[in-house]
Q: What sequence folds into this?
């Protein structure tokens, strides 16, 4: 049976990592996959996470199943991060949280929930968006629609086009919004634009699905939640998909969360009962370890302070690399204006490099960038910066 099957196409980003691993050139640089790297090019285990794991190893008394939605204390800590401890949503119990296997797991359960309970709803996604979004929602059977977002000419948000696009969404449709650090563009709405998005969502009764994979990587843990909280202030019902892969460095523990916000506690409870039904039919209940780490760190004032410092250090390093990249290109005499890179947020930027330039960087200089020109700024280090910028200068010189 299986010999007749066509091979499935390789995942474009993970395929790039394979090619990078197999490249024998010693000076190779990987700006492809979305993983944080420190100044030495490593993806370290955070110290706060290590300390929490030591505690867990001593204190853990069972490997019995978690509830379908995970440990209640995990959900409470996630909601505190999202809304703030004193938020009206928290006080009125208008939100419920399920611990999911990564942010991807949260998105998939959100898709299953939409398909099961609102089968006529389509989901509107920004152009461009994270490569896996369309995959995940299509696999759940949800129809996806494209909405303008990025202005490639001006290297900024095409806000009018975005609003016009959302305006054309039928009432009640779902809209996928990146809470911060838009992947792949690094371009986020400003506070006034979030207000306008929130007003439109309310007027058209859209259902936001907020993807929050980079809390703390933009301007700060609280600052990065402002857009989400602006949406919440309208009383909108929504789904929020958190990932702790990046801000806790828990990539392979698969730790994320799906939070549903209802207009009332009763509405949230009703929606959550169906979310649990979707989970039961999928992976049944979540893996424990990553969630236990997050609860332990967030529940202990010292560990939490240490973690906040570690998130700030990751954010500051990325922003430092953005500035150094632009300065080094300038010093190399590159005339193209790359200053927009310093205005973008999070791990990613659209470099503006085209497919031919990306291919030349890979073939001639062992520099790996996603075909769209998306670069992972966290893959840059002080050590590789000069090699990287010299190669970009050479490729731009040739193809200009
Ligand atoms: C925008 C966005 N959403 C969700 C995810 C999924 O995160 P996770 O690895 O926790 O599944 C990613 C990961 O790169 C992402 O960039």
A:
């Amino acid at each position: 049976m299986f010999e007749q099957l066509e091979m499935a196409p390789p995942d474009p980003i993970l395929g790039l990592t394979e090619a990078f691993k197999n490249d024998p050139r010693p000076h190779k640089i990987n700006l492809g996959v979305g993983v944080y790297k420190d100044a030495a090019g490593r993806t370290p285990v955070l110290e706060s996470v290590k300390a929490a794991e030591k505690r867990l190893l001593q204190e853990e008394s069972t490997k019995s199943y978690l509830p379908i939605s995970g440990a209640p204390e995990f959900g409470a800590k996630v909601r505190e991060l999202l809304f703030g401890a004193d938020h009206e949503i928290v006080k009125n119990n208008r939100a419920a949280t399920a611990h999911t296997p990564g942010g991807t797991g949260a998105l998939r359960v959100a898709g299953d929930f939409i398909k099961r309970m609102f089968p006529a709803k389509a989901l509107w996604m920004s152009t461009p968006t994270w490569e896996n979004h369309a995959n995940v929602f299509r696999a759940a059977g949800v129809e996806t629609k494209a909405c303008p977002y990025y202005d490639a000419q001006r290297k900024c948000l095409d806000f009018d086009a975005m609003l016009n696009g959302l305006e054309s969404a039928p009432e009640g449709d779902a809209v996928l919004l990146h809470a911060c650090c838009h992947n792949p563009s690094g371009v986020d709405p400003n506070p006034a634009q979030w207000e306008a998005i929130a007003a439109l969502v309310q007027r058209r009764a859209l259902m936001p699905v907020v993807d929050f994979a980079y809390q703390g990587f933009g301007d700060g843990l609280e600052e990065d939640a402002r857009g989400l909280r602006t949406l919440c202030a309208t009383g909108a019902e929504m789904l929020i998909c958190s990932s702790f892969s990046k801000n806790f460095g828990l990539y392979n523990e698969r730790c994320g969360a799906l939070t549903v916000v209802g207009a009332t506690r009763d509405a949230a409870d009703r929606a959550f009962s169906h979310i649990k039904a979707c989970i039961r039919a999928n992976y049944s209940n979540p893996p424990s370890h990553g969630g236990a780490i997050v609860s332990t760190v967030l529940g202990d004032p010292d560990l939490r302070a240490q973690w906040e410092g570690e998130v700030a250090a990751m954010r500051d390093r990325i922003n430092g690399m953005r500035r150094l990249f632009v300065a080094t290109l300038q010093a190399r005499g590159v005339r193209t204006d790359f200053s927009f890179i310093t205005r973008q947020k999070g791990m990613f930027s659209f470099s503006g490099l085209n497919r031919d330039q990306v291919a030349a960087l890979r073939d001639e200089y062992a520099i790996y960038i996603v075909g769209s020109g998306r670069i992972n700024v966290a893959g840059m280090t002080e050590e590789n910066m000069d090699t990287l910028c010299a190669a970009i200068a050479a490729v731009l010189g040739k193809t200009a």
Notes: The mean pLDDT is 96. The chain has two domains: 11-45+307-399, 65-299.
